[in-house]
Design brief:
mainly alpha
């Protein structure tokens, strides 16, 4: 389920990516790359609370990158804090 959400989010980000400035795009891409590294580390871990914590950390890193990019260049892209959707949104 989580992978499906990430795929959907990535597809949506690609569709909206044309609306962002190159600098904001770079910030978001860097955060996504960092989140992917953390997620890969989590995938190598045995099931349990530590793995879940690593997956949550990856989600937070990715969402914070989206937030930072949105703050840099808010021209229509909807960040998790604006939509209330995302693992770190309550």
């Amino acid at each position: 389920m989580r992978k499906m959400f990430i795929t959907l989010a990535a597809t949506s980000a690609l569709a909206l990516g044309a609306c962002q400035s190159p600098a904001a795009d770079k910030v978001e891409d860097q955060a996504e790359a960092q989140a992917d590294v953390i997620d890969d580390q989590a995938d190598a871990m045995p099931e349990g609370p530590a793995k879940e914590a690593m997956e949550n950390k990856a989600d937070v890193v990715e969402e914070m990158g989206e937030e930072k990019a949105n703050a840099m260049d808010d021209n229509g892209e909807i960040a998790p804090s604006e939509s209330g959707v995302g693992d770190t949104q309550k």
